[in-house]
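Archive record:
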Amino acid sequence: MGESERDLVTGLRAELAAVDPSRPCDRTAEIAGLGSRLVAREPAVARLAVRLGGHALEDGGARRVMRLPEASFDWGPSPDHCRFAWLRGRFLARGSLSLAAGRAHLEFTVPAEEAPVLAARLGEIGLPAAWRIRRGQGVVTWKSAESITAFLGRIGGSASLLELEARSVARSLRGELNRVLNAESANLQRSVEAAGRQLAAIEQLDGDGRLAEQPRTVRAVAAARRETPEASLSEIAVRLDLHRSAVQRALDRLERLALHDDEGIGRRHRRHAGAAAGS
C-alpha cells in the first residue's frame, strides 16, 4: 500500500475515533466494542479510549495498551445507533483496511469463537461478510468496495470516506477507459491487417486479369479500397452508396479468389491466355 493510501486509511481511522457518541447507550456500546483491554496503534484511538474513561497500562511506543471500563452490550434488542457504535469500536480495536494495488480489503481479526457471531451480525444489517479461521484467530472480511464504503459510512465515516469513494470511482473509470482503449486498439489492428490482405488480393487479381472479370460492384469496392486504404467498411459503403454488408461481401470475395481461385475464373483466364499465345 502506497503512502497516499496509508495516509487515507490513517485519516479515516482518526475520523472514526473522533466521533463523540451523543447518547449514553452509544457510549457504552462503543466501549464494549473496543473491549476492556485495547491495543491502540494510533494516537487518535488512544485519545478516544481516554475520552471514554480508559487509561494506559503500558506504553510500547507506537502501540499503547489501554484499560477501559467494563461494559456489556446486547446486540439483539439494541437499536441501530447502538449497533453501529459497537461496530465502530470493534473496527477501531480489531479492524484493518487495505487499499493496496487499487483494491479495497477490510477485515476484523477477532477471537475464533467471535468470527461467526460478528459475521452473522453484519449480515443482519445487510452487509454479509465472509469469515474463516487463520492461525487460530477468527477473520471476518469484505473485499467488495461497495460493502466497505457502506459499512464505513454507517459507523461514522464522512470526509475521508468521500475521498475513498472518489478514488474508487476514479479507478473504475480508469479501468473502463483502459478496456475501451484496448478494444479500440485491437479493432484498429484488425482493420489494418484486413486492409493489407485486401490490397494484396486486389493487386494479385489485377495482375493476372481476374479483377477485370469481376462484377461492377466488386470492381468499384476494389477501386475504393485502393484509393483509401485507411477507410472503414462503413466509409466505403457511404462513398459508393452501398450497404456495408455488400462492401464486406465484395472484399471477402476478392480475398477468397486470390487464395483459392474460386469459380474457375483463373482457369478460364489461363485458357484464354494460352489460346492467344498459340494462335
Notes: Confidence is low (pLDDT under 50) at residues 264-279. The chain has two domains: 3-157, 183-263. The CA atoms of residues 14 and 249 lie 66 Å apart. The beta strands are 37-40, 55-60, 63-67, 95-98, 105-111, 130-134, 137-142.
